[in-house]
Amino acid sequence: MIKLPALFLALAATATFLRADVLMQPNDALAICGDSITEQRIYSVDMEDYLLMCEPTSGQRIAQFGWGGERAPNFLARLDSDVFPFKPTVATTCYGMNDGSYTALTDVIAGTYRTNQTAIVDALKKHGVRGIVIGSPKCVDTAAYRRVPGADVYNKTLGALADIDKKIAADEGVVYADVYGITTATMEKAKAKLGKNYVFAGGDGVHPGPNGQIVMAYAFLKALGCDGAIGTVTVDLGAGTATATDGHKVLSCQNGEVSIESTRYPFCFTGSFDKPDPNTTANITNFFPFNEDLNRYMLVVKGVKSVKARVTWGKNSKEFSAAELEKGINLAAEFADNPFSEAFAKVNAAVAAQQAFETLLVKQYLHGVGQLKTALPEQAAAFDSITVSALEKDKKLYEASVAAVQPVQHTIKIEAAKD
After folding, report:
1. Residue 397 phi/psi, 5° resolution?
2. Helix (H) or strand (E) holding 399
3. Residues contacting 200, CB < 8 A, separation 6+
4. Is the model's pLDDT at 12 over the cut of 90?
5. How far apart are CA 113 and CA 102, in angstroms?
6. Domains and CATH numbers, the chain
7. How far apart are CA 87 and CA 74, in angstroms?
8. Which of 110, 368, 391, 404 holds its CA 20 to 30 A away from the CA of 250?
């Protein structure tokens, strides 16, 4: 196995604070692992976006290892070739969708899954992975899923596999991410409000679009210990002053207009909070607590003399009562289109390019290079050189993702609302 200590040198991500219950610590390398749902590179990109922009940790490294059609035994078999060359110290796994064989649960299915999931945890531990998150499978869409014996039966199977994951996590002393529970609850709430045919998991009922994927990202980010305290801006209109927490610097405050420079971003969504669309992420947040738990960018305003005040942030304005502003409003939950949206999208594009290369690197090269070296031992040195170059390329793409996170200057304006 090629050893590349330079791969995880400290990169330019700014840590604000660290808590003992946060799995990601300085210089950690996170491996996001799973089947075709992971290989879609949507929830994995959401996770990396969040860990780069919203709650960054110094020197961190993030990569994804999704493989379509994979079951837990297949992942166990490719850990040495595909994952361990990246020297991860933290890993998330998401298996079970294929392991359930799209049928009612049997003792053989349950036993095989339990054995291999446990073996994966043991292998990760033996290779220096300090923080391990076992993610359960997600649910299937009760309307879009068309396989026999049907969504109700298969969701029972997936729920049973989730229970196995939870038990393994407890027995092994690792963290459990209840992907099944949060996706099921969110889907049920969304369909109750928007109709039973609302699409939560793509055309096949298995693979989510952006709406379902952001729910999966939530489960893993919560399991990693992210707490969602993006920042707080406090404005005292009477004194004409403003303060901000770490990651946000007040540049000026005059006549209710506050200029701020931020190095920490709120998570930015696509689409509208008010318009349901499976291909966007904003509206689904009405049905699970992403903003409440993971995305609190608070504005507190003291000294509002009118009954209501208008808050303008970027191109958009909304009205709030004086009491609401005194208590604090969550800007991230109120303004889907905000001054961070453009910068967030640029970072997202860099992360997507990085993770796309990782799929190519893992599936088309690392997975088979060992066999090639055996078949062509005289070219072993050449293969080693290519491996070094390929991993260095991925490192540079990650560094480009980090470098894309630039300070954002923005203005919050508070004024009396017009009657």
Report:
1. -65, -40
2. helix 380-403
3. 141, 144, 183, 186, 187, 190, 191, 208, 211, 212, 278
4. no
5. 14
6. 5-227 (3.40.50.1110), 229-340+406-416 (no CATH)
7. 19
8. 404
